[in-house]
Amino acid sequence: MTTRSGPGHDRDDPSLSAIMSERRQLINLAYRLLGSLAEAEDVVQETYARWYAMSDREQASIEAPGAWLRKVAGRICLDLLGSARARRESYVGEWIPEPVPDRTEWMKPEGDPADRVTLDESVNMAFLVVLESMTPAERVAFILHDVFRYSFPEVAEIVGRTPGACRQLASSARRRVREAETPATPSAQQAGIVRDFKLAWEAKDIDALIGLLDPGVTATADGGGLVSARLLPVHGGDLVAHAFADIARVAPDLAILERSVNGQPGLVAQQDGVTVAVFAFEVAGDRIKHIWAVRNPEKLRPWTAG
Description:
Layout (H helix, E strand, L loop, with lengths): L13 H7 L2 H12 L2 H16 L3 H5 L4 H25 L35 H8 L3 H12 L4 H8 L3 H18 L6 H16 L3 H7 E10 L11 E2 L1 H14 L4 E7 L2 E8 L2 E11 L2 E8 L12
Helix pairs in contact: 2-3, 2-5, 3-5, 5-8, 7-8, 7-9, 8-9, 10-11, 11-12
């Protein structure tokens, strides 16, 4: 985002540099709160717009500008989460959080490093999907306290509840995360399983695919009504294996590439060099438990060059 200097602001002003240095932190916060990079960017732009709408005197009266920016961004995210539920009800098919690439694979044309999301366990797809099951207040309290280490009094200022109530919200959210957790599989082992899945998929080897899938595996696709995608999740190893084999048959020109998706081993499908789908996986032990396939082109902007 290009910011416009207001009256009396010099681009070399150290206070301006301090304000703009908060951008990456704000992007990271908003992405985890919303599960959408596009919405996170809008939140950050609106946050800065509110800062620059203030007079110099109003800005000078704020002792901790960074904390002010984070508080405003958090409140905007909380409002957006409240309205997101209604929007999701009218969304065509399943809604999956927007996947982000590893920073070395970031293909977003504008390429601003400040827009890149820091990848850790708090952005893996399974974790983001669990966050979607929370109430807006639970999600905000949990992310602010457990991920970004805000104190509960600080969380309370953003959520608009007492510190004690925010503590209960975070505890409830934490319980949801624990209930959904699977034993951690080492990254190298995950990468090997995803690679084996890729090879079996390309070979249309049903038996090999079934052998890599948990019997209760679920595959979910998100086309957003803009491209073809199954509207409902597919359950069970046999059905999921056949579904992927069918994709290989109807799209023989599909190039499947191994990539990091939200900090974990994943796959990217390309046609004529253009990314048309991003696949995230949850691996439990030596089997794939969940597959999330994002096909909505609006969610693939960071993956597409040009």
